[in-house]
Each structure stands twice: as structure tokens, then as C-alpha cells.
Amino acid sequence: MELQGLNTIAFDLDGTLCYYAVSAQTAIAESLRRLECPVDLVGDLDQAAARYNELWYEEELVPDPGKSFRERAWARLLQEHGVNDPVLTHELAMEYTSIRVPGIRLFDDARDLLLDLKKTYRLGLLTNGPSDMQWQKIEILKITSLFDAIVVSGDVGIYKPDTRVFDLLLSRLGVMPQEVLYVGDSHPLDVVGAKVAGMWSAWVRCNDEQQAADVAADIEVNRIGELREVLL
Fold first, then answer.
1. Is residue 226 part of a domain?
2. Residue 70 is part of which domain span?
3. Do 27 and 41 have their domain in common?
4. Domain's final residue, options 88, 103, 118
5. Is the domain of 87 the same as that of 38?
6. β-strand partners of 105
7. What pLDDT digit, counting tens, does each position of 203-218 carry?
8. What is the spatial distance between Cα 18 and Cα 23, in angstroms, rounded to a whole number?
């Protein structure tokens, strides 16, 4: 479809441009081992990883500036297995982060797509998450120079889908909402947030998440590289 007036492409980070090379199962198991915890402290590792990812997603929808999504997800996972220990929760969250974050990787076609888009469009990045963790990922991926503006929610205490954080990105890019396509993998955070803010939206459907009936993405793709056919 033709997106009239489009001159800027903005992206979500996690799950859209990049992924973790270390699985949640492996990171949980190694975190428990390092802290000399029973391997079954949170039950079956596959089930624990699936539940952890669900809890992370739930916590991301209701951000609390006082604690990271990761620590809050760990707290709930442990509590579900009868463990209520704030110190252990913090230590496990820190170990998990130290194991998983350094293994962050761009999807195979992401860098080339960004480089080619930059020749035609202004580029922005808007990512939820704690400041230190998200900036560490951006540094590891070596993508800072590819964007004209970057907003990390943890820096400003406002998180997607709050329209104010989309407005902040628009302000830093110096563009109007109708000039921007926002690309993300979460329907409630990325598609709904962008549409309410007045932007065009592209949904990268890389999981089983369902689209809300009342807010449809303007573009749907199964992987980031498919945007090349639409935008270039």
C-alpha cells in the first residue's frame, strides 16, 4: 500500500531489529547455577522460560520506574514457586541480564535494510526498557549512527504504548506523526501506540500474538527484511 507523505521510518528494538542468541532456558539455568540455587527452583526449565517471557510481557504493559521489567518478572516467577526473597530476585535478574544481553544480535537482514533506508528516509529508534540495559544493547549492536534520533523509555520514565513517548520521538526527529511509519513486533505496544499517536504502523508478526480487532496495522510482515519490498 502507498503511505502518502512518508519521510521517516522509526523502529522498535527487541524482537523487531534484534534477538537474543542465548535462549531464556539457557540463561535461567546458568543464572541458577551461578548462584548455587537448585536447578528446579522455578520448576521445569522450558515451562519456566515460557512463563518468564509471559511475565516480562505483562510487566512491560504496566511499567514501574522503580524496578526493571526483568526484576519484576523474576519476582513473580519465584513467588509462583513459593520463593519470596528480594535479594535473590535481584541477584538472579542481574545474572540473567549479564548472560543474555551480551548475546544480542541483529536479524540477518536488519543492518542492510537500515543502511538502505537511511539513503531515503530519516530513521528513529524507540525502545522500552531500563536505560542501562537498552543502551548496552544499542552499543553492542553498533547501530547508534544509523538513527537520527533514539529514545529509550527508561531515560524519560515514559513507556510504550503511552503516546507521550511517541511524541517525544517525533519532536527529536522534527517530523509530524503522519510522516512516520513505526515498525514493531508487539501489537499493543507498537501498533496501537503508534496509531493512537497518529503514525502509520508496520507489524512484524514473529510470534503468535493476535491483532486487536479495532486497531489494524497498515503493513504486516513476517520478518523485517520484507519491508524492503514496501519501502524501497
1. yes
2. 21-103
3. yes
4. 103
5. yes
6. 19
7. 999 766 666 657 899 9
8. 13
First to last CA, the chain: 13
CB count in 10 Å sphere of residue 165: 23
Q: Angle at the Cα of 86 (from 54 to 52), degrees rounded to 5?
A: 10
Q: What is the pTM of this model?
A: 0.89
Residues 147 and 112 in one domain: yes
Of the candidates 158, 177, 131, the residue with the CA atom closest to the CA atom of residue 10: 177
Q: Which residue has cell 512463563?
A: 51
Q: Do 114 and 93 belong to one domain? A: no
pLDDT, tens digit (0-9, with 9 covering 90-100), for 34-61: 999 999 999 999 999 999 999 988 887 7
152's grid cell: 529509550
13 and 79 share one domain = no
H-assigned helices in the chain: 24-34, 45-61, 69-79, 86-100, 110-117, 131-141, 153-156, 163-173, 192-196, 227-231
Burial of 38 (C-beta count, 10 Å sphere; 0-12/13-18/19+): exposed
As a whole number of angstroms, the distance between CA 177 and CA 179 comes to: 5
